[in-house]
């Protein structure tokens, strides 16, 4: 690519008023962290954008990384030229020749420095005519151009912007507090984690495992899903909960049709204790209304009874097809459909209760020793830390 620098523009961050600086600083930190492997890239924060001087780094490698950072609305590639008409002409032609897939274009010029003697409309005509004369494949389309050449005349130099790339949108991760995600090996919960991270939440995940009924392959599946979620945020912690004793106690004590309800209530109790330990302000699940027996309103009402924390359900009104589509977009789908059982698929009753009653659920739990089972599970939590560069090494000795 011929470009000298990239410009990152904000979306919703621009509307944050007096809080804007806090969001921008967090976004700048995320960009610096993700681009740390490109030492020549020089990152400068401005009031309305972040500028990345490439200094020879490959924009083609940097752009896909930036497009996964939440808080970025779009990214423009650009060059800088001197503040004179001849330099501008050469600049727009240079970009027109570079963007070989474009067949139509328009010029959008504006003067930040009003002392520059040529007005915007005149610049549009001068520069557009020059491109038409010197780039045979290009024609003008002012309504739906393939390429908009934005020319911004500044006080010391002129920026000329080429192709604009779509960003991930949302808010920088970490600006909306920390959430504990109940992560399974299924399709839904990774998507819920992704959507919450996109809204600025810092995500930690809790996974319930039941060895020897669940295998190391099921565990690896969840670790691989965690890596995908981590790629959208910063450091990610995965908490592995020993759930075998609780699950066997539920199987042996609770009537079959209430086992799913009691198991979910047990998970919520354990997750609430873990959230308190790890500083999380809410729980989150991948539940979608009516999808399975534990996701009816009656079930969710009965399960929610055991926790005082907010329970966030980003997928609650989404169809399975829509959830699967997002899973494919974020590259978790193929991992989620690996055929390894997790604890949620063990001991499934033939006819689970779809309208469980709070009073009945509480009565069955009296025979379980709930407090002891919760304490045992929380005390046995093993935490894995997943970072951008150390993921493989961190897990090599744990599987």
TrEMBL record:
GO terms for cellular component: cytosol. The keyword Nucleotide-binding applies. SUPFAM superfamilies: Adenine nucleotide alpha hydrolases-like, THUMP domain-like. GO terms for molecular function: ATP binding; CCA tRNA nucleotidyltransferase activity; tRNA binding; tRNA-uracil-4 sulfurtransferase activity. One of its GO terms (biological process) is thiamine diphosphate biosynthetic process. SMART domains: THUMP. Signal peptide: none annotated. Keywords: ATP-binding, Cytoplasm, Nucleotide-binding, RNA-binding, Thiamine biosynthesis, Transferase, tRNA-binding. Pathway: Cofactor biosynthesis; thiamine diphosphate biosynthesis. Its main location: cytoplasm. The keyword Nucleotide-binding applies. HAMAP family: ThiI. Pfam families: ThiI, ThiI_fer, THUMP. Belongs to the ThiI family. Its EC number is 2.8.1.4. NCBIfam families: tRNA uracil 4-sulfurtransferase ThiI. Catalyzes the ATP-dependent transfer of a sulfur to tRNA to produce 4-thiouridine in position 8 of tRNAs, which functions as a near-UV photosensor. Also catalyzes the transfer of sulfur to the sulfur carrier protein ThiS, forming ThiS-thiocarboxylate. This is a step in the synthesis of thiazole, in the thiamine biosynthesis pathway. The sulfur is donated as persulfide by IscS. Residues 60-164 form the THUMP domain. It catalyses: [ThiI sulfur-carrier protein]-S-sulfanyl-L-cysteine + a uridine in tRNA + 2 reduced [2Fe-2S]-[ferredoxin] + ATP + H(+) = [ThiI sulfur-carrier protein]-L-cysteine + a 4-thiouridine in tRNA + 2 oxidized [2Fe-2S]-[ferredoxin] + AMP + diphosphate; [ThiS sulfur-carrier protein]-C-terminal Gly-Gly-AMP + S-sulfanyl-L-cysteinyl-[cysteine desulfurase] + AH2 = [ThiS sulfur-carrier protein]-C-terminal-Gly-aminoethanethioate + L-cysteinyl-[cysteine desulfurase] + A + AMP + 2 H(+). It is found in: Cytoplasm. PROSITE patterns: THUMP. This is Probable tRNA sulfurtransferase. ATP binds at residues 182-183, 207-208, 264, 286, 295.
């Amino acid at each position: 690519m011929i470009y000298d620098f990239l410009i990152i523009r904000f979306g919703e961050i621009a509307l944050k008023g007096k809080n804007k600086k806090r969001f921008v600083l967090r976004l700048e930190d995320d960009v610096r962290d993700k681009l740390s492997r490109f030492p020549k890239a020089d990152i400068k924060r401005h009031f309305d954008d972040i500028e990345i001087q490439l200094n020879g780094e490959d924009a083609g490698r940097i752009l896909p990384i930036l497009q996964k950072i939440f808080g970025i609305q779009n990214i423009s590639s650009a060059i800088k030229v001197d503040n004179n008409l001849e330099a501008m002409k050469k600049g727009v032609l240079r970009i027109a020749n570079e963007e070989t897939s474009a067949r139509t274009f328009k010029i959008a010029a504006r003067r930040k420095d009003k002392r520059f003697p040529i007005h915007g409309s005149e610049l549009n005509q001068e520069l557009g005519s020059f491109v038409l004369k010197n780039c045979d494949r290009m024609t003008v389309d002012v309504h739906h151009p393939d390429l908009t050449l934005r020319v911004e005349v500044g006080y010391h130099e002129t920026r000329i912007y080429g192709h604009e790339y779509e960003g991930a949108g949302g808010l920088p991760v970490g600006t909306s507090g920390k959430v504990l995600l109940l992560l399974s090996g299924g399709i839904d919960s990774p998507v819920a984690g992704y959507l919450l991270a996109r809204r600025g939440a810092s995500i930690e995940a809790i996974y319930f495992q039941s060895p020897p009924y669940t295998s190391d392959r099921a565990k690896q599946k969840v670790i691989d899903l965690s890596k995908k979620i981590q790629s959208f945020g910063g450091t990610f912690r995965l908490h592995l909960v020993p759930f075998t004793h609780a699950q066997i106690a539920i199987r042996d004590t609770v009537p079959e049709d209430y086992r799913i309800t009691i198991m979910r209530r047990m998970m919520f109790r354990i997750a609430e204790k873990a959230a308190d330990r790890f500083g999380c302000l809410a729980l989150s699940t991948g539940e979608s209304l009516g999808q399975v027996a534990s996701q009816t309103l009656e079930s969710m009402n009965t399960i929610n009874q055991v926790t005082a924390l907010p329970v966030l359900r980003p997928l609650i009104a989404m169809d399975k097809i829509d959830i699967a589509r997002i899973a494919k977009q974020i590259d978790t789908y193929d991992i989620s459909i690996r055929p390894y059982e997790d604890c949620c698929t063990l001991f499934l009753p033939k006819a689970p209760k779809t309208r469980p009653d709070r009073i009945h659920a509480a009565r069955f739990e009296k025979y379980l020793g709930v407090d002891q089972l919760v304490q045992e599970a929380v005390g046995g939590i093993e935490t894995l830390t997943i970072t951008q560069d150390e993921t493989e090494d961190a897990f090599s000795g744990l599987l």
